[in-house]
Design a protein that fits this description.
Length: about 240
C-alpha cells in the first residue's frame, strides 16, 4: 500500500514512517522542517521531501497513487501569547484543509489524523467530596508554594485525575488545542462530504504510540486495536511541546 506520512521527520512521524516501511508499505514522507520543531540548522532526513502541507502543488505532485494519508504534521506547543494564533491557524488548520482538498482531487479517501489529549482541555478530575468537577485554573499562590494539583471549584479541595473517555466534551484551552480541535471538525466534514474514512489517533502515553492498521481503514472496516511501537522517553526530548 502507498501511504503518505506528513510530519515524517518529527518525533511521532519518524517512527510511524519507520514502522510502515518495515511492514512493507510504500511510504512517501514529507515534512516542512519548521525551525521551532527541528532547529534552525536541521537537515531534511534521507527519503523525506521538504514539503509544507499548505503547498497545494507540492502535495498534488506526491498524492498520485496514494491509498492512505497519515497526517502527523502540526505546529505544536501551547503558544507563547495570542499573537501566535495566526501561525497555529495557518499550519494546523489551513494546512489540513489544503491537504484534504488535494486528497479529494487525487482520489484518496482514507485519512489517519493525529489528534491530541489537549482537545479535552484540563482532562478529567474528581473531587473526593463533590465527584466529577471542572477544575479551577491553578492560582499563583499555589504555584509559588509548589502546589500543582487542581482544586475543586465548589470547596477548594485538591482534585484527583482520572482517565478521559473519548466521549468527553471537547474543551480546548490553548491555541494549539483549538487548532487540533478544528482539524478534527474539518476531517469529519471532509469524510461526510466525500464518503471517505477518518481514523483519529490520540497520543497519550510516554512509553509507546499506537499506529492504526491502515489496511483496515482503507478497506472501510471499523478499526479496533492497534499495532504498538515502543518509544523510550530517552529516544528524544519532547522539545516540541504537547503531542
Amino acid at each position: 500500500m502507498r501511504i503518505l506520512v506528513t510530519g515524517a521527520a518529527g518525533f511521532i512521524g519518524a517512527r510511524v514512517r519507520a514502522a510502515l516501511t518495515a511492514a512493507g508499505h510504500d511510504v512517501v514522507g514529507i515534512d516542512a522542517m519548521l525551525s521551532n520543531a527541528h532547529g534552525a540548522s536541521a537537515r531534511v532526513p534521507d527519503g523525506i521531501s521538504e514539503v509544507d502541507v499548505r503547498d497545494a502543488s507540492g502535495l498534488a505532485a506526491l498524492l498520485s497513487g496514494v491509498d492512505v494519508v497519515c497526517h502527523q504534521a502540526a505546529m505544536v506547543g501551547a503558544g507563547v501569547d495570542a499573537a501566535d494564533a495566526p501561525l497555529y491557524g495557518s499550519h494546523n488548520d489551513f494546512g489540513t484543509t489544503v491537504l484534504l482538498a488535494e486528497m479529494f482531487a487525487a482520489g484518496c479517501r482514507a485519512l489517519v489524523l493525529a489528534s491530541s489529549m489537549v482537545v479535552y482541555g484540563q482532562g478529567r478530575f474528581v473531587c473526593p467530596a463533590h465527584g466529577d468537577v471542572d477544575p479551577l485554573p491553578r492560582t499563583r499562590a499555589d504555584l509559588d508554594a509548589g502546589v500543582f494539583e487542581h482544586r475543586c471549584p465548589v470547596g477548594g479541595e485538591e482534585l484527583e485525575w482520572r482517565l478521559v473517555g473519548e466521549q468527553a466534551p471537547l474543551r480546548p484551552r490553548s491555541l494549539y488545542a483549538a487548532s487540533k480541535t478544528a482539524q478534527e471538525h474539518y476531517a469529519l466534514a471532509w469524510a461526510e462530504a466525500t464518503g471517505g474514512s477518518v481514523r483519529r489517533v490520540a497520543i497519550a502515553g510516554d512509553q509507546s504510540i499506537t499506529v492504526p492498521r491502515i489496511l483496515a481503514i482503507h478497506s472501510g472496516t471499523r478499526f479496533s486495536g492497534g499495532d504498538w511501537i515502543g518509544i523510550r522517553p530517552s529516544d528524544r526530548p519532547m522539545s516540541e511541546g504537547p503531542i
